[in-house]
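WP5 quarterly update. Target: Cytidine deaminase. Source organism: candidate division WOR-1 bacterium RIFCSPLOWO2_02_FULL_46_20. Length: 151 aa.
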Amino acid sequence: MSRPAWDDYFMKITRDVSERATCVKRQVGSIIVKDNRVLASGYNGAPKGFNHCTEATCLRKQRAIPSGERHELCRGLHAEQNAIVQAAWHGVKIEKSTMYCNYQPCVICVKMMINAGIVRLIYAGGYPDELALQMLKESKIKVVKYEGGEQ
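Structure tokens (predicted):
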């Protein structure tokens, strides 16, 4: 029996987490891992207690805002934000951890990752946010573009 490599294993979990996303534009999942143990997970969608986004309520679709721009014009939180918030909510220390995402994080998420002490990022799909890429290069986060398996 062949066992998957750790990055393959955690990216599969990240894809599974993304299936819970409630965003009408893109399903994104993220997990935070340390010592090969999942510490927290998150997916994109409206804050808890809020109605899920719909085609009719999506400000980004209504205003034709391209991906990677005007992040503040959205009711939802990003998967990376939700994973960091879940860790904080449950008192889980994520310093020196790895974040797995099925898409490259935006600049807001990158800033949160830096301040949360995340040291490694594995992401699969691209996202059009050049400032996020610049900040990742300037940070001490080790960035790996995942090339294995299905996204």
